[in-house]
Design a protein that fits this description.
about 325 residues; alpha+beta; 60s Ribosomal Protein L30, Chain: A; Phosphoribosyl-aminoimidazole Synthetase, Chain A, domain 2; seven-stranded mixed beta sheet; about 25% strand; binds magnesium ion
Length: about 325
Amino acid sequence: MSGRPDEFAWIETLRPLTRADGRALDLMDDAAVLAARPGFDLVISKDAMVEGVHFLQGEAPETIARRLLRASLSDLAAKTAEPFAYLLMTAWPADRDWAWRDAFVRGLAKDGERYAVALLGGDTVSTPGPLTLCATVLGWTPEGRAVLRSTARAGDAVVVCGAIGDGWLGLRAARGEISDFGGALAVRYRLPEPLFSLRQALRDHARAAVDVSDGLLADAEHIAAASGLGLSIDLARLPLSIEGATWLSAQDDEGAARLALATGGDDYAIVCAVDPADVGDFAAVVEAQGTPAAVVGAFDAESGLRVSMAGSPIKADRTGWRH
Ligand SMILES: [Mg+2]
């Protein structure tokens, strides 16, 4: 995009995304202005996506927009924050016309409504490179109550909420590499659902949590490393969707297949540390929300990650997506 008229037209297009939130100042000022909220902490997270790296080339613009927001919001869900706003950066290659951008904005409008988040500002530039997008999401948690990575204790159970492997299987299905059960897996890859439904359960029971974006093993290891702990994970205990379980049952090497599911990423499930005495209550509340929950291992004082399947050690040479 070049020239002022274009930039003003783009701001006009974006203005409905503020959802009449006064803090956006109609996208006419240099910045948004937010009043502090007494008794709450502001939780902020940023996610960037590059076409061909974080989403497939040729993906529908509406889907790209929604996936961008959802992936960012998933980080807030893991912190148990209540989202209210986002900032947006778009770097457009020359080949994106207005029809494409309008469809992109329709996707943002849809999920802005769904998650009650208002666009408060951002920036737009043109690029000689691939389409690059960045969303910064903002949410509130009651003061001092955000669930962090660094607060797991030795002996805590490693609990996964949400199916593992559907993100990776969904990407393969979207590429046409595996068959897709009426499209269920590709939809989960394209439009993951941030687990805000678990906010209260996590606040009540989780000592530490992260969302599973890089891959279960990598993300569980992030909690361990931040907490100064190690962990063991039993691949036999992964929570799987019906589609995931069906795919798995057709694989020759079950260990390798389970390892692929546990390292594939893009699941936007939540992995957390829970006091073993509390696991039963927690799992019951999570499952009552319709989300599968499973204890897949334990945090301990030994350093490093130990992976096994039903008692036999498995060599995990990669744990997830490396940036
Ligand atoms: Mg995350």
